[in-house]
């Protein structure tokens, strides 16, 4: 092997080690990685902020939000995470079955609302209106928590809706209605509350009977177990409950 | 030429990066239930929709991309390079951005979509046509660039001789130019088809995800991946199917290429 080739290989090795140095060595034992359901966007950022203000010795990595089901898949596939918070108990089951978390604790509840454009131009009053021709309805896919709840609600009202699109997380449904690309969508009432003036919410009959219960759990192989447990305790504490309530979540 | 031996090391790493994930995917396939996963009605619906929409998108590419490729190949150098840069835009756009751009233009609240919807009540998103538009948007560059390359390397001599013998412009194009680049045209069409088949991002945003209407194979894979337990096997099975079909297209492409070198 000549000198030039050696130099080239050395350079390559340097580049590769540079690429490979991940944040593991920077990640102290007090930085918490959180995977949270899409519907927790906003409230969890707030909770994390208040938590770190109260306990400055801990820090929280940017929270990963997605459909609970997508997050569950990533966790089962070995994603490094300390705290999981999902939108229903069923979505936590595959994670629990793998022994990654326990069953967790229920920290909040949520119910569905029909989200429509401000002022309700299509005059939608109930679930039956979602099935009307000329009303473009977007739902969550039946596999994800908001979709499971939507299906239960529609079935109990004996309404069959053919959605123009099935989204894999609730945020996408909100966005489509907000942008005016759809006339109506079934989302959580907290999503409507968070959207402010951009959406109008209609509570359909029977919505109160379909309740999503949100579990939160610390993973068994958490890199920051003490910090993770402290965060979970904070969410379950009176201070945490106040924040959740302010965002429109029900409390168990 | 002899290659310096140490070059084999990074070359092997590159090859492993390309091939190892595929091996990983194949290792995940549950052969026992593969048939059930593949031939479930949901899978078949998605596959049928994908094939139909990708074929339509390819036809759109051929119909409109061929004239564009001819114009670019025969344009003056500076103009051609500007046009080529424009054609390449969808290729370098992140997929989701393509979807956003299509929504901003053709969505219900889009530049063109809004007046259209208010006037006729028709809107493109959430329709099978929207899938075709999204696929054509991302597949067009592949077709145009491939055909453009073939046109540029084709011999202009025949065209000039035909013209001196009194053939009109249309006749030269139809009888000389296009037949000469037929292999390139077929290769471009096959590439466009493969790209349309795998299109996900722009479709998800612009066309949505409704079974039988806009849920193509990649969207079915994504939805299955987000499902629980059993459906993830079908995500893997569908991925395998998509992988095999793309491989068939690419291998078919090679034989075309070899025919082209005469």
Automatic annotation (TrEMBL), chain A:
One of its GO terms (biological process) is molybdate ion transport. Residues 1-20 form the signal peptide. This is Molybdate ABC transporter substrate-binding protein. InterPro entries: ModA, ModA/WtpA. Molybdate binds at residues 39, 68, 170, 188. NCBIfam families: modA (TIGR01256). Keywords: Metal-binding, Molybdenum, Signal. GO terms for molecular function: metal ion binding; molybdate ion binding. Belongs to the bacterial solute-binding protein ModA family.
UniProtKB/TrEMBL annotation, chain B:
Keywords: Cell membrane, Membrane, Molybdenum, Transmembrane, Transmembrane helix, Transport. InterPro entries: MetI-like, MetI-like_sf, ModB_ABC, NifC_ABC_porter. GO terms for cellular component: plasma membrane. The keyword Membrane applies. It comes from the Bacteria. The keyword Transmembrane applies. One of its GO terms (molecular function) is molybdate ion transmembrane transporter activity. Residues 47-253 form the ABC transmembrane type-1 domain. It is found in: Cell membrane. It is a multi-pass membrane protein. The chain crosses the membrane at residues 7-26, 46-73, 85-106, 126-151, 172-194, 235-253. PROSITE patterns: ABC_TM1. Pfam families: BPD_transp_1. CDD domains: TM_PBP2. Part of the binding-protein-dependent transport system for molybdenum; probably responsible for the translocation of the substrate across the membrane. NCBIfam families: Mo_ABC_porter, modB_ABC. Belongs to the binding-protein-dependent transport system permease family. CysTW subfamily. This is Molybdenum transport system permease. The lineage of its organism: Bacteria, Bacillati, Actinomycetota, Actinomycetes, Mycobacteriales.
């Amino acid at each position: 092997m000549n000198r030039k080739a050696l130099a080239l290989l050395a350079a390559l090795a340097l580049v590769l080690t540079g690429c490979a140095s991940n944040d593991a060595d920077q990640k102290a034992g007090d930085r918490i990685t959180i995977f949270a359901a899409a519907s927790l966007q906003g409230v969890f950022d707030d909770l994390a902020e208040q938590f770190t203000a109260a306990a400055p010795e801990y820090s929280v990595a940017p929270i990963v939000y997605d459909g609970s089901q997508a997050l569950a898949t990533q966790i089962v596939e070995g994603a490094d995470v300390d705290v999981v918070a999902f939108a229903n108990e069923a979505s936590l089951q595959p994670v629990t079955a793998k022994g990654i978390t326990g069953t967790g604790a229920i920290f909040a509840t949520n119910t569905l609302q029909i989200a429509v454009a401000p002022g309700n131009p299509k005059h939608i009053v109930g679930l039956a209106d979602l099935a009307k021709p000329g009303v473009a309805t977007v739902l969550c896919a039946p596999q994800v928590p908001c979709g499971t709840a939507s299906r239960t609600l529609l079935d109990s009202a004996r309404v069959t809706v053919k959605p123009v699109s099935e989204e894999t997380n609730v945020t996408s449904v909100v966005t489509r209605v907000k942008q005016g690309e759809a006339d109506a969508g079934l989302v959580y009432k907290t999503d409507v509350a968070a959207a402010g003036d951009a959406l109008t919410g209609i509570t359909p009959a029977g919505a109160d009977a379909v309740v999503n219960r949100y579990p939160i759990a610390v993973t068994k192989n958490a890199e920051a177990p003490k910090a993770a447990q402290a965060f979970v305790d904070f969410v379950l504490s009176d201070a945490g409950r106040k924040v959740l309530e302010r965002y429109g979540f029900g409390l168990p | 030429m002899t290659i310096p031996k140490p070059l084999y090391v990074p070359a092997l790493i590159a090859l492993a990066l390309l091939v190892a994930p595929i091996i990983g995917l194949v290792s995940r396939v549950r052969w026992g239930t593969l048939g059930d996963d593949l031939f479930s009605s949901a899978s078949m619906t998605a596959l049928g929709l994908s094939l139909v929409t990708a074929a339509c998108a390819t036809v759109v590419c051929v119909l409109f991309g061929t004239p564009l490729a001819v114009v670019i190949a025969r344009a003056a150098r500076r103009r051609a390079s500007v046009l080529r840069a424009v054609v390449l835009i969808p290729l370098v756009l992140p997929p989701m951005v393509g979807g956003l751009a299509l929504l901003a233009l053709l969505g219900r609240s889009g530049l063109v979509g809004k007046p259209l919807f208010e006037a006729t009540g028709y809107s493109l998103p959430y329709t099978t046509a929207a899938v075709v538009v999204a696929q054509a948007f991302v597949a067009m560059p592949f077709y145009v660039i491939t055909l453009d390359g073939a046109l540029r390397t084709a011999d202009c001599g025949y065209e000039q001789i035909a013209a001196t013998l009194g053939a009109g412009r249309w006749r030269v194009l139809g009888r000389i130019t296009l037949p000469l680049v037929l292999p390139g045209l077929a290769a471009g069409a096959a590439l466009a088809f493969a790209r349309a088949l795998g299109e996900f991002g722009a479709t998800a945003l612009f066309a949505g995800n409704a079974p039988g209407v806009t849920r193509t194979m990649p969207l079915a894979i994504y939805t299955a991946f987000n499902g629980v337990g059993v459906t993830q096997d079908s995500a893997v099975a569908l991925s395998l199917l998509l992988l095999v079909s793309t491989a068939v297209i690419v291998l078919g492409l090679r034989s075309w290429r070899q025919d082209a070198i005469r």
